[in-house]
Each structure stands twice: as structure tokens, then as C-alpha cells.
Amino acid sequence: MESFHRFKYIVIIIISAIFVVFLWQLYWLRGLYDSIENETIDNVMSCIEDADNEELQYRLDMISRTSTQHRTISIDKSLTGESDSTTNVIETTTRSTVNENDTTIKIHSQNKEIDIAVFNQIAKEIRLALHQSLDTTITINLNALDSLTSLNFKRKGIDAAVCYSEIINLNTNKVSYTSLHGASFSKNTQAFLYIYDTENHYAYKIYTTPLEKTILKQMSGILITTFLIILILGFAFVYFIRTVMKQRTLEEMKDDFTNNMTHELKTPIAVAYSAADTLLHFKQGDNKEKRNNYLQICIDELFNLSELVEQILSMSMERRKSLILCKEEIIIRDMIYSLIEQHKLKSDKEIIFNVDVYPENLRIKADHFHLNNIMSNLIDNAIKYSMGKAIVEINVYQKDKYSFITVKDHGIGISSEDQKYIFDKFYRVPYGNLHKVKGYGLGLFYVKTMIEKHYGTVSVKSTLDKGSVFTIKIPT
Asked: Which is more confidently placed, 319 or 343?
């Protein structure tokens, strides 16, 4: 009992540890998900910014192709907040030449080096100036913006589609333009706001399919690894528990078997010893009738003792890989009727046998000794577990190159739960006060083992209080 409690505490500790590890893994995965989500959103905003630049370039090219007029956009920007700050002139010039039209951006600085942050700020000022200059002349092409954003998504490996986009006036929160025509978009979408005109407060609102697929795709390696680790841990734990419980159950059944067998061995030994002692010391041998009775008692008890030893030896034999079956043609009807006579003689209850063998001269190729023991075990169980008068039905027939033998009784039956274990070694069905029925949990195990050595199978169908049917299937 102490070992059981110790095992229970160990199991609780292991389950708790696995659960804590699982929770920590979920927490860590959640943090990883948030980190990748933020990184992906940054990439999306970068794609929209690039698409905005490309859309601006697209409109500048349109002007270059359609206009010969020289246009200059100048931006004066102080790079530092100092009094002697350097003034930079950024010019965007559109001009026409004989061979081609082009757009150039010139940055003039008195500094030899420009900091990256400052350069990015200058780039934003350029985009702002271009928008303020171009948006009043040529309307922003939102369809082009959608297409360019989608292309940038593909370049950066973002598995999301651009559904549509809008231009939002942030002052009034109204939509100025949209690339969506007709009915509203029905799919689940995710919106991204990109402010392209900070002075006039205009922004793009880009609607895309959700980013979960992209995020999970990036996490696929760690998710699969985590799932496999949890699966392996779960499988190992379940296997460990089942193995330990099976060993514990086997140990208990072995203890029951040892106690039961010890009791059964002591009984014939004690009776035979008493009979022999009476003959030897109390001169009962002088009376011929009493002598014969006592000697018969000794013979009967030694025969019982021999049967017990034979069952144990049979279980030892099945372990030997060198066991060779001596198969021969057996007239199954003769074997059955011989067993019937034996069981009628030794049983103390009324038995009715119904035997049907088709055809009557049916022969089965099997080991005579073991098949005889198999049938004897099944018949003995049918008798033992029948209350009052025992009715045993035996049917033998052939079908599809197999011989079938069924042994049916109308006894107390076996529950569906116990049917899973009745062929296990040492297992005995607990029947409450019926546990006094003699047995060692070896009979059906022996039946299954020997049938399998004949390359056959044995199965059972049973209902409580209605009886059981055991079916043997052996290749012909």
C-alpha cells in the first residue's frame, strides 16, 4: 500500500511538471508570436511605403511623358537645430530632352556626410512635397497602389493579399477615394493606416487578408517541434503509466496465483499423507476394505496433484521456442465424446451436452495432446460457471479453409470489461462469492497460446447472466 501511495505521488509530480512545462511553452510561444507579429506589421508598413514611392514615380513618369514644361520643387530643410545650421536644397526636376524624359532628385549639402536618420527625414520631406505638388494635378491611382503593395508583399514573403485601399481625411475621418467598387468586401480583413501627408492629414487605409497565416508560417518550425516534443512526452508518459499498472496488476495476479496454487497443492498432499499415515500407524491395512479405500484416496489425491503440476508444466512449455507441435489428422467427434464422458464422471452436477459436428467424419489437423487440453479447458469452464444444471453446446464445422469449434454455455457470463483480459496470464474474473470456483488464471491463457501456435485464433462473445460462446478458428 505504501508503494502504491508513493507511485501515486510520483505520477502527480510528473503530471504537474509536464503541465508547468506546457504552460511555460505556451507563454513563450505567445511572446514569440507577438514579436513576429510586430516584425511582420513593420514589414507591411515598409511595403506600403515602398508602394507609395513607386506610385509617385508612376505619376511622375506620366507627367514626363505628357509634358515638356520644366518643373522644380524646392525644399529648404535645416539638418541641425544649431544657429549655424547647414541649409540643403532638394530639387525634383522634370525636364524633357530630345532622347528621353527623366525625373531627377538632387540633394545639395554643405556637409560631406549625412546621418541615416536625417537622410530618412529628408526622404519623407521629399515624399510629402511630391504628394502636395502632384495630388492636386493627378489623382492618386489606388489600383496601382494595391498592385504595387501586393508585389512588395511577395518580395518580402508576406502571405497576405491586398483586398482594397482607401484615402482617409484624418480631420473629418471620411473616405475621399476607394479602390473598392460595388458591394462591400465580405472577407475577414485587417486594416493598416499609413499617413502620407502629415500637413494636410491624409492617409492610406490598406485592407489585407489577416496576417496569421504569415506569422504561423514563420513559426511553423518551432510549432512542429513543440508539438512533437509534447506528443512524445505524452506518449512516453502514457506508456510508462500503462506499463507500471500492467506490471502491478500482473504482480497482484501472480500473488493470487501463488496463494491459490499453494492451497491447492497442500490439500491433496495433506489428504494423501493422512491416508498413508493411517494405514501405517493405525493398522488399518489389516482390513482389506479399508486398506483399499485409503489407497484409492491416495491415488485420487495424487492424480489431482499430477493435474496441477501438468498445468504448470504446460505453461512452462509454451515459453520454449523449441516447442514443436505433433500435428495429425484428428477425428474431432471422437475426441469430443471422449471428453464428455470424462467430465460427466468427475462432475458433481447434472450436465446436458448438445453436440453438432458437420460433417460427422470431420477431421482437423492439429496436435492431439494440446487440442484435447484446449477442448477440456473450455468444457470445464462451461460447466464450472453454470449455476445448477449445466447445458453445454458444442458445434464444429468447416468454412473457407478453416475449421471452427464453438463451445457455448448458459452460465453467468462475462462482462464486456473483463472480456478484454480473460486470455491474459493469471487473470481470473472476480465473481464475488463465486470466487470459490477453483482456477488459476491459466486455462484460457493456455488455450490462446496453443491456438496461436496452430496459427489460429480464439474469441469470446458473452452477456452477463446469459452465458458465453468461445469460438476457435484453426486452418485446415
From this structure: 343
pLDDT at 145 over 70: yes
Q: CB atoms < 10 A from the CB of 337, how many?
A: 14
Give the residues across from 457 on adjacent strands.
473
Dihedral angle, C-alpha 430, 434, 439, 441, nearest 10 °: -10
Q: How far apart are CA 151 and CA 134, in angstroms?
A: 23
- What is the DSSP secondary-structure string of 27-39? HHHHHHHHHHHHH
Q: Give the three-class secondary structure for 341.
A: helix
Element holding 351 (H helix, E strand)? strand 351-357
247-252-257-258 Cα dihedral, nearest 10 degrees: 100
Mean of the per-residue pLDDT values for the chain? 79
Mean pLDDT of 121-146: 82
CA–CA dist 106, 89 (Å, integer)? 8
How far apart CA 33 and CA 212 sit, in angstroms, is: 9
C-alpha of 448 from chain center: 30
- CB neighbour list of residue 440: distance below 8 Å, 6 or more residues apart: 257, 260, 261, 264, 311, 426, 428
**Region 50-55 average pLDDT:** 90
Helix (H, G, I), strand (E, B) or coil at 268: helix
Burial grade of 376 (CB within 10 A; 0-12, 13-18, 19 or more): middle
* Confidence tier at 275 by pLDDT (50, 70, 90): confident
Mean pLDDT (whole number) for 390-410: 94
% of the chain residues with pLDDT over 70: 76
* Cα(373)–Cα(451) distance, integer angstroms: 11
Handedness of CA 93, 121, 131, 162 (dihedral sign): positive
Write the DSSP assignment of 17-85 as a string of letters: HHHHHHHHHHHHHHHHHHHHHHHHHHHHHHHHHHHHHHHHHHHHHHHHHH----EEEEEEEESSSSTTP
Cell (9 digits) for 329:
489428422
